[in-house]
Amino acid sequence: MKTRRLNTDTEIPMLGFGTYLISNDKAAQAVAVAIGAGYRHIDTAEGYHNESGVGLGIRQAMESERLSRSDLFVTTKLWPGNQAWGQPAKTTETTVTSLEESLARLGLEYVDLYLIHAPFERAQRLAQWHGLLELKRQGKARAIGVSNFSIQHIEELGAAGLPLPEANQIELHPWSQKPELVRYLNDHSITPIAYSSLVPLSTWRTAPGHDSAKTDRMKWEGEQANNPFKIMAQKHAVTEAQILLRWAIQKGYPVLPKSTDPSRIRTNANLFNFQLDDADMSALEQMDRGEGVAWSSGDPTLAP
Ligand SMILES: NC(=O)c1ccc[n+]([C@@H]2O[C@H](COP(=O)([O-])OP(=O)(O)OC[C@H]3O[C@@H](n4cnc5c(N)ncnc54)[C@H](OP(=O)(O)O)[C@@H]3O)[C@@H](O)[C@H]2O)c1
Asked: CATH number for the 3-287 domain, one of 3.40.50.150, 3.40.50.720, 3.30.70.640, 3.20.20.100?
């Protein structure tokens, strides 16, 4: 399994399994299928309300696949709270107890990576980052980072004299490439982790209740015969999803494809036996449309 180094003693697998919008009662089965298919990184969050199902799937798969805890990499995320949405903001202390509660739901003693899910107010970002530093010191998180943070948000942590995050989980795919942010992250040894890699597919979050408000405006006329993803998929005899995921891996971004379909879970994991060539990569480079779509609805119950 290919990995990327996060800190002196932690490496993150390039292939991970996403669990946003998988309900708690379906999560154990999906996670067990994913681990059986070779995924070694599982991504969840307090805000996904599925940590107990995810943890059950992890423990079941460890037994059936004869894996030890150190064979797996588990990420969860602090839901920071947002006063603008009527939620109290987490403090340093409640950040620490939030991970303890996540660990209890997961049935694990530590996570490999703990992230602040999103930046809301400045004071709360700093307080919460202090909490993550404490959790790393206690060994409850082997690595710590952020998600959806801009360069300015990260610079604030440095300006406060604090160590920088080890990862920033952000929406990254050929339609949303964020070159300036990615350059900054790589220059500061902060691993960019790609989420929502499959946004350009016509099938992305089309299940009832899974839609994202801005998506329709972004869509290719998905089924066009000259859709470049389709052409590359034919050329390499893989799926369009594999093209999108392979693009991220060649850019150095760990990926987190989510599916509840066992056959998609398996093909999405098949990323290491073909390679995009320079012409493919430069064609994909031309497709950037700027900002992403995953955080578009503004509805806190749908916030990823
Ligand atoms: N930090 C954050 O703020 C944040 C935000 C968004 C996501 N994430 C993380 O990143 C993960 C992935 O992002 P995501 O869930 O937004 O989207 P994604 O993994 O890019 O795409 C998932 C969507 O694509 C469909 N799909 C999966 N494989 C497919 C295939 N081979 N062919 C066609 N369609 C396929 C899925 O449907 P089926 O399930 O029906 O297959 C689902 O609708 C999340 O689950 C979560 O863990 C984090």
From this structure: 3.20.20.100
